[in-house]
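Worked problem 6 (solution included).
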Amino acid sequence: MKQLVYFLCTGNSCRSQIADGFLKAMGGDKYEVKSAGLEAHGLNPRAVKAMNEVGIDISSHTSDVIDPEILNRSEYVITLCGHADEHCPVIANNRVTKWHWGFDDPAKAAGSEEEIMAVFREVRNAIKARIEIFVQEGK
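Solution. The predicted structure is:
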């Protein structure tokens, strides 16, 4: 049975969606992957674009609010922003491993479209590098 990994962020629009896409692509044979947010802000089109650039289509993903049932049956709960880490609902199941991997919010980037996309790419690449370690080493 695949281990369930639940990526959490504030809005489930960028970072958790990128992590979800990478883990499905790199470790989908080993992991069931889901993502959610404290709120659902909708899928960020720039996150979709940044992932398309590396050959991963997340355009069909939905932006979802944290589901306590999924939270408590997860093997790993991984928060990707400080706000989600601080406000994550209480996990009733003590077998759940909870980690915090902090990444800057690319949606807060300012400047020209190219400057904003550069931030999205930087965060995307940082998340990819972290997912690679997780898939290879399980941590």
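Discussion: The helical segments are 15-27, 45-52, 68-73, 82-87, 113-137.
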